[in-house]
Amino acid sequence: MDLLTLLGGALDILINIKALLWILLGTFLGLVFGALPGLSATMAVALLIPLTFYLEPVVAISMLIGAYIGGIAGGAVSAILINIPGTPSSVVTTIDGHPMAVQGKAARAL
């Protein structure tokens, strides 16, 4: 397969509105899981696997990737706002983010 064929297939999936909605749902759920202290992005993926059983494989994996990325980004929300990292990868965010939130610059820190 050449590169153009692979890119065309990926673009075909992203244009599909059903696939895009599942990716957005996965990203939103990942953000929720990441923002809750104690629930990591990996746990979000593990808990969302049953939702993917009846989806097309590419759409299901895309949704899980969205959940993982959303979970990593969501961990910064609680780290910045309440100084409790939501995921292990956002521990360092508490050092810079929370003092900015205390100064009233929470939106910029997020």
Would you write up a description of this structure?
- It is a single chain.
- It is built from six helices and no strands.
- It is elongated.
- The mean pLDDT is 88.
- It has 110 residues and is mainly α.
- Helix 4 crosses helix 5.
- Helices cover 72% and strands 0% of the residues.
Secondary-structure content class: mainly alpha
Task: Figure out the total of helices.
Answer: 6
Total count of strands: 0
How would a crystallographer describe the biggest sheet? none
What percentage of amino acids are in beta strands? under 5%
Kindly summarize this structure in a few lines.
72% of the residues lie in helices and 0% in strands.
Task: Kindly list the characteristics that best describe this protein.
6 helices, mainly alpha, 110 residues
Write the layout of secondary structure elements.
Layout: H1 3-15, H2 17-35, H3 41-48, H4 57-81, H5 93-102, H6 106-109
Helix pairs in contact: 2-3, 2-4, 3-4, 4-5
